């Protein structure tokens, strides 16, 4: 089963990369991803968390997977607002903990707008 899941992650997010990250970069990535995860977990109209990782894949230093439970043809305003909040949760965590935002948050902001 781990091989199938790794293959799915490779297709969806790209191959894992052996980037050398220092301790601060690992911490910042972890807090960023957990920021997404906390909001996805607590907001009632957001999709739940499937996986959080700080393993680099593609261009990302880490990722939080929040796949929808089922396919939807329409989305409510509340669902959209909660999805946007989840996308911005990584940046919010960076600002709360480090008083700085990283370039990693720029992709989240682009997706949210």
Compose a concise summary of this entry.
By secondary structure, the protein is mostly helical.
Largest sheet composition: 2 strands, antiparallel
As for the number of domains, it is 1
Give the CATH class.
Mainly Alpha
Return the CATH topology: Methane Monooxygenase Hydroxylase, Chain G, domain 1
Could you say what the CATH architecture is? Up-down Bundle
* N- and C-termini, Cα separation: 36 Å
Low-pLDDT segments: none
Shape: globular
Number of strands: 2
Describe the structure.
- The protein contains four helices and two strands, in the order ααββαα.
- With 113 residues, it is mainly alpha-helical.
- The chain has one domain (2-112): Up-down Bundle (Methane Monooxygenase Hydroxylase, Chain G, domain 1), CATH 1.20.58.
- It has a two-stranded antiparallel ribbon.
- 25% of the residues are buried.
- The mean pLDDT is 88.
List the SSEs and their pairings.
Elements: H1 2-13, H2 23-42, E1 51-53, E2 63-65, H3 77-98, H4 104-112
Helix pairs in contact: 2-3, 3-4
Spell out the key features of this protein.
113 residues, mainly alpha, two-stranded antiparallel sheet
